[in-house]
Amino acid sequence: MTRRRARETGIWFGELPTGSRNMITDVPGVKVGHSTIIHGSGPTQPGKGPVRTGVTAIIPHEGSMFENPVKGAYFDFNGCGGLHGSLQIREFGLIDTPIMLTNTMSMGTVAESVIRHMLKGNAKVGLGDDTIIPIVSECDDSWLNDAQGLHVKEEHVVSAIEGATTDVHEGAVGAGTGMTCYDYKGGIGTSSRVVATDAGKFSVGTLVLTNCGEWSELRIDGVPVGSLLGSPDEKRPERGSIIMVVGTDAPLNARQLERIARRAIFGLAITGSASHNGSGDIVLAFSTANSHLRFRHSGLVTEQLMLDKDIDPLFRATIDSTAESIINSLFKAETIEGRDGHVSYALPIDETLEIMKAHGRLI
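-> structure tokens emitted (363 positions)
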């Protein structure tokens, strides 16, 4: 059975219109790439497998990220997780590398690989120019994956970056390959909204890496789907994390982008998560407007900036798009068996839709 995105089944997430793709890539210039690593089965042989992991790259624009950083911010609602490069984002309000997602113990490899890749196009880095601090975040896929094997390599990172397109694959792909969400198979999900404000018409897009929650929490459009489905046949012992990335072409500064990042947590809450003790619930937000020209300006710079009074529609767009992205990650992911016979089962779509119909959410 071909698994459909949530909206394709008739499930609704707020009143705002989506972009043409209903993906983060509806924000002009944004691309996403994955590298998926799957091989082996059976008992774990540390260093050999089974392997169920990968890496995902979010490219904010098609030019040089090093020469033209974008405005950026982050928010860590629950900090049991990692965000490499976060101090520089907080200090300067800029993101100057691709945003990379992977498994917890591969963060170092991914960071070094991004540096090596970017050095090829920026020969003066560290020789008079600034150095590179990659932006990398993670979730723990060790329930399905031989995490000790450190299977993400430089070639996987390069493949994700260089293969980035506007067509975003969802579910058990890239960094989402080994992830579990609400005790069902999770992974990558994305969505977008178009908003009209007094300052103009803008796109807001989100992409999530879902590895959070327990089955009884799952809500879809207010319906307690998880508890009505009942406990899955297999549940992992911990409650994981979630990384949420919000992109927009609205002209926002770092302070405003942090406010946007905070609203993504409402989208997570709509789907039911209590943000468990061991969960890294982290949001990155960026704006492709007013990209900073690192080497071309000195003195004063004039930029357009949205007034705070016009930002409310972007808050709503972030909340609804984040919630839809999370549910898309569940609707698109297929069952995966990982190490030692551990299984993360796909959300049963037919049963879920029957529940939604019974509660008046579908005709």
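The chain has a mean pLDDT of 95.
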